[in-house]
Amino acid sequence: MADEKGAVEASKRSVLVGEFMTKEVVSLTPEQELQSAVKTLMERHIKGAPVVDSEGVLLGVLTEDDLLAGNSRLHIPTMISILGEMTAWPPSILKFNHELKKAASSTVGGAMSTEVEVLSRGDTLEDAATKLHEKGLSMLPVVEDKRVVGVVTRSDILRCLSGG
User: Fold this and answer.
1) Is the pLDDT of residue 154 over 60?
2) pLDDT classification of 102: cutoffs 50, 70, 90
């Protein structure tokens, strides 16, 4: 019985990325306004997305970590949501709101990470899980000929392991 369980676990670890990756990728462009990108991430309930050029070539990724405002560790999407609902602004908040809007009006290209860990369709579930864990990532683009063909998230791995 233990040998059967071990064999099943080993076979799941060797499942290829191309078999369980998310193929319908939400991607961003470097020219896109940051506020628009934040809205996309929040509406889709995702923690990040690949940034691609007009031909789908991977240029970088934009994640929630990229959206933390400098050393203050303010989460820009949350602050935009909170401050957007306020109707009366104390003077000290007006300046902060101006700075926040300035940051939010920046482009994806200015906020994205350009050093990106990637996977290929031929990598295994074990490869993907190891990279996600060791690098502390929530998403990895799957690239073929420099173009994004999918993404792998922690949820994709859990879904595959659970047989879903």
Assistant:
1) yes
2) low
Q: Which helix (H) or strand (E) holds 105?
A: none
pTM of the prediction? Answer: 0.74
The position carrying tokens 């996977």 is 119
The whole-chain average pLDDT of the chain stands at: 82
Query: How far is CA 33 from each of CA 4, 29, 107, 109, 110, rounded to the nearest angstrom?
Result: 52, 9, 4, 9, 10
Helices of type H across the chain: 2-13, 17-20, 34-44, 76-84, 91-104, 108-111, 125-135, 154-161
Cα gap 2→7, rounded to integer Å:
9
* Per-residue pLDDT tens digits for 7-35: 445 667 789 999 999 999 999 999 999 88
- Count other Cβ atoms within 10 Å, centred on residue 126: 14
- Assign 73 to helix, strand or coil: coil
Say whether domain 14-161 belongs to CATH 2.40.37.10.
no
Q: What angle do CA 123, 154, 147 make, to 5 degrees?
A: 50
Instruction: Show me where the domains of the chain are located.
Output: 14-161
List beta partners, residue 51. 28, 60
As a whole number of angstroms, the distance between CA 2 and CA 52 comes to 45
